[in-house]
């Protein structure tokens, strides 16, 4: 059974490493040339909780030839569609395509390239970073929750849960994964863009009354839009989850801070706060915080001349 990791940045390397370390046939796909070269020449280096180096195949998506049994999508949201276009030749009748990206609405893009029966959607709270090309920083523990979009794919999705568990990735099959996806989107929605705009850690943002109130207002907008979209969300429970996550990640600069402020790269804001800003008005819900935050992030991208 061949598994491709389509998008092998930080978290893609974590999943690829775990699968390869447990003897699975896994191939990393990416378009970042120096990263590919580093792994081809020196193996994938792991630092953090363990120090290791593993030989693992990595190539450009267009170079891969074997039809996939499973593709795990781990691009940034804005790279997803381009990646799907580059891997269509790997997608056969029975290829399962699993998406664990942060953010909302990725299934709408995947449906253009993969039949509904083969799409698996989910969320992970594993984390990972990159120390540089070819070196992943893996710390802490996490989990994966997934669901087949179509009833006919449930059995196969449960086999994928088993594959992930044999690789230590702590996966669960979920009858309704969307509340978990939205819950994580609320955490990202409250912290990522705000910390990127204010150039601060999660703890610093939640540490002031103003910051905390902004996080609460953003979460409220997410929950209202989620509820109106048919997602079962409990605002008090979600707010408690967002607060708990802010304590756990207190010293952390969120990924959007790293993209925007540190690396001057485009952000995932359109797939987090931007989704709420777009959907809210369509559903008759006011979403001024998400709209303003999305606009400010794009304004800052323009200031930094990020394309
Ligand atoms: N990291 C984490 O802890 C977690 C991340 N996620 C989500 O998973 C998805 C992937 O995230 P993550 O792995 O962190 O993303 P990364 O930024 O580490 O990697 C994503 C892609 O960005 C490109 N890239 C990364 N660094 C560089 C660089 N320095 N120079 C040039 N290109 C680079 C590569 O794509 P290309 O081939 O185009 O060059 C790579 O495949 C996102 O949706 C994220 O929100 C979800 C849970 C946890
Ligand atoms: C740390 C955390 C939870 C902040 O939202 C995160 O998921 C990120 O950095 O993207």
From TrEMBL:
Every copy of the Ketopantoate reductase C-terminal domain together lies at 179-301
List the molecular function annotations (GO) for this entry. 2-dehydropantoate 2-reductase activity; NADP binding
State the Gene3D superfamilies in the record.
Answer: N-(1-d-carboxylethyl)-l-norvaline Dehydrogenase, domain 2 (1.10.1040.10), NAD(P)-binding Rossmann-like Domain (3.40.50.720)
Q: Which GO terms describe its cellular component?
A: cytoplasm
Question: Which family does the entry's similarity section mention?
Answer: Belongs to the ketopantoate reductase family.
Which organism was this protein described from? Granulicatella balaenopterae
**Broad EC category:** oxidoreductase
The enzyme's E.C. designation: 1.1.1.169
Keyword field: NADP, Oxidoreductase, Pantothenate biosynthesis
Q: Does the keyword Zinc apply?
A: no
* Protein name in UniProt: 2-dehydropantoate 2-reductase
> What this chain does, per the record?
Catalyzes the NADPH-dependent reduction of ketopantoate into pantoic acid.
Q: Matching Pfam families, A to Z?
A: ApbA, ApbA_C
Q: In which pathway does it act?
A: Cofactor biosynthesis; (R)-pantothenate biosynthesis; (R)-pantoate from 3-methyl-2-oxobutanoate: step 2/2
- Entry-linked InterPro entries: 6-PGluconate_DH-like_C_sf (IPR008927), 6PGD_dom2 (IPR013328), ApbA (IPR003710), Ketopantoate_reductase (IPR050838), KPA_reductase (IPR013752), KPR_N (IPR013332), NAD(P)-bd_dom_sf (IPR036291)
SUPFAM superfamilies (UniProt xref): 6-phosphogluconate dehydrogenase C-terminal domain-like (SSF48179), NAD(P)-binding Rossmann-fold domains (SSF51735)
Q: What is the lineage of its organism?
A: Bacteria, Bacillati, Bacillota, Bacilli, Lactobacillales
Query: Which residue range or ranges hold the Ketopantoate reductase N-terminal domain?
Result: 4-150
* Leader sequence residues: none
Q: Which reaction does it catalyse?
A: (R)-pantoate + NADP(+) = 2-dehydropantoate + NADPH + H(+)
